[in-house]
Amino acid sequence: MTHFQDFYKKKQLRYSFEIFPPKDPQGIEPLFQALRELSVFDPAFVSVTYGAGGSTRQWTRDLALRIHQELKQTTAFHFTCVGSSKKQILDYVTRLKEEGLNLVVALRGDPPQGIEKFVPSPDGFQYASQLVAYLKEINGFSMAVAGYPEGHIEAKSKEEDLIHLKEKVDSGADIVITQLFFDNSDFFDFVDQTRRIGITVPIIPGIMPILSLKQVEKITSMCGAKIPSDLHQELQENQENPEAMKQIGITHALHQCRELVKKKVPGIHFYTLNRSASTLAILQELHR
Ligand code: FAD
C-alpha cells in the first residue's frame, strides 16, 4: 500500500502536481502533455481535484484512473463530503482502491455558492475529520488533509482552525497540504504553530504560479488567501499584458520556492491549473 508520508521520508525534496478535470474532453490531451512534461521532475504524486458541489464525481474518478493507468504516474484523488452518504463514499473509494488508487486528499468541501453554512448530506459528514476517521476505519487508504496558513475562511480564529486541523491528523491523516499563499511568513508561522500543538506529520506548502490578475482575484476571493499589496499592484500595472502577468507569477512563485527550499520543506505541492509552462519554468530555475 502507498502511504503519503513515505514520499517525504528521505531528505530529498519531493514535488506534487495538482490538476482539475478539464471541462470537456478536448482538454485531456493538453493536460496529459503537461503532465508528461512535468514528469521530468519525478513527482511524488499527481492529485486530481473533486469539483465543487461534487460536480466532477465521475470525471475525477475516470481521470485519476487514466493518469494512473496510461501515464503510470502515482495518483491521488480528492474527495469531499458534499452530496455523499457513508454508503456512497464507501462505494466510490472502494472501486478506486480496487484499481490501485489508495491516496485520498480528504476534504469537507464548500457549501454551494451564495450559501454560507455547510450542510452535511443525510448520513454523511459535517467535517473532514469525520471523513478521515471513516476512511481510516475502512482500511487501506492514506489520507492528506487541507491546512490553512491564513486560517480557513469560515473559522472563528486561526487558533480554533488549528485545533480542528489537529483533529484531522489525530483521526488518521498522514500529511497536510496547505492552501495556496503568497507570503511565506504565513506558512512559516503556521508550521511553527502546528508543531507547538503537537502536529508532527509532514506539512507540504501549496504554491500557485499566478497566471493573471483576474484569475488570482477570483481564487483568493473564494479561499480567503491574501495577495501582498506590492504583488497586487504589479499585476494591476500589467493587466493588459498576459505574458507579463505570467512572468510576474513565475518570479513570485520562484522566490517563494527558493526560500521554502532553503528552510528545508519536505515537498512543494504545485497548483498547476492544468498548465505546465509556469511550473516547469520555476522548477528549471530551482534546479539550475
Ligand atoms: P474542515 O477541515 O472540515 O474544516 C471546515 C471548517 O470547519 C473550518 O473552518 C474548520 O475550522 C471548521 N471545523 C472543523 N472541524 C470542526 C469541529 N469539530 N467543530 C467546529 N468547527 C470545525 N474543494 C473541493 O471542492 N474540491 C477539491 O478537490 C478541493 N481540494 C482542495 C485541496 C487543498 C490542498 C485545499 C487546501 C483545499 C481544497 N478544497 C477543495 C477546498 C476545501 O474543500 C474548502 O476549503 C472547504 O471549505 C474546507 O474543507 P476542509 O477539508 O478543510 O474542511
What is the β-strand count?
Answer: 8
Euclidean distance between termini CA atoms:
34 Å
Described by its quaternary structure, the protein is: single chain
Ranges where pLDDT stays below 50 over 5 or more residues in a row are none
Query: How much of the sequence is in beta strands?
Result: 15-25%
- List cofactors, ions and other ligands: flavin-adenine dinucleotide
Helix content: 40-55%
Helix run count: 10
Mean pLDDT: 97
Going by helix content, strand content and strand pairing, the class is alpha/beta
The main pleated sheet reads as:
8 strands, parallel, barrel
Which sequence of strands runs across the widest sheet? 1-2-3-4-5-6-7-8
The topology string of helices and strands comes to EHEHEHEHEHEHEHHHEH
Radius of gyration, in angstroms, nearest whole number: 18 Å
Shape: globular
Draw up the topology in text.
Layout lengths: L13 E6 L8 H11 L6 E4 L8 H14 L4 E6 L5 H13 L4 E5 L20 H11 L3 E6 L10 H13 L2 E8 L3 H13 L6 E5 L5 H11 L5 H9 L4 H21 L4 E5 L5 H10 L2
Parallel strand pairs: 1-2, 1-8, 2-3, 3-4, 4-5, 5-6, 6-7, 7-8
Bound molecules: flavin-adenine dinucleotide.
